[in-house]
């Protein structure tokens, strides 16, 4: 059309592809808290569920499956009885710890503190 300026698409700011991939995975509800718990060490499914108030068994199972598919979590079955499954971070998952620590510090500084249960 007459009067329109040509637009250099390459000059536009774009979201970094790596950041998009990170938040596509870690930005899902419950994923951050799951990884945060596993940073402290391996955990059984029931321990993870107790450590993350409000998460359903189905959602925890779904998120753990996604994290395993992404190579951040590994699942180890301990034959029973009872059959128990322990989850732990892979090397790639454990490498998230410094970033999670930084995000936690940022949140303490810039986000309002919500009420915490007594004893926490």
Automatic annotation (TrEMBL):
Keywords: DNA-binding, Transcription, Transcription regulation
GO molecular function: DNA binding
SUPFAM superfamilies hit by this protein: Winged helix' DNA-binding domain
Family matches, as Pfam families: HxlR
InterPro entries: HTH_HxlR, WH-like_DNA-bd_sf, WH_DNA-bd_sf
Domain HTH hxlR-type: 12-115
Domain of life where this protein originates: Bacteria
Protein name in the entry: Putative transcriptional regulator
Organism (species): Streptomyces viridochromogenes Tue57
């Amino acid at each position: 059309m007459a009067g329109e300026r040509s637009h250099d698409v390459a000059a536009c700011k774009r979201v970094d592809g790596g950041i998009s991939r990170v938040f596509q995975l870690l930005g899902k509800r419950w994923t951050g808290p799951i990884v945060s718990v596993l940073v402290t060490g391996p955990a059984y499914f029931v321990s993870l569920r107790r450590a993350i108030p409000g998460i359903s068994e189905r959602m925890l199972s779904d998120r753990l499956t996604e994290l395993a598919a992404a190579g951040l979590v590994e699942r180890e079955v301990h034959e029973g009885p009872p059959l128990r499954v322990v989850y732990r971070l892979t090397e790639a998952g454990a490498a998230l710890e410094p970033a999670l620590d930084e995000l936690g510090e940022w949140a303490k500084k810039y986000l309002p503190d919500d009420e915490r249960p007594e004893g926490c």
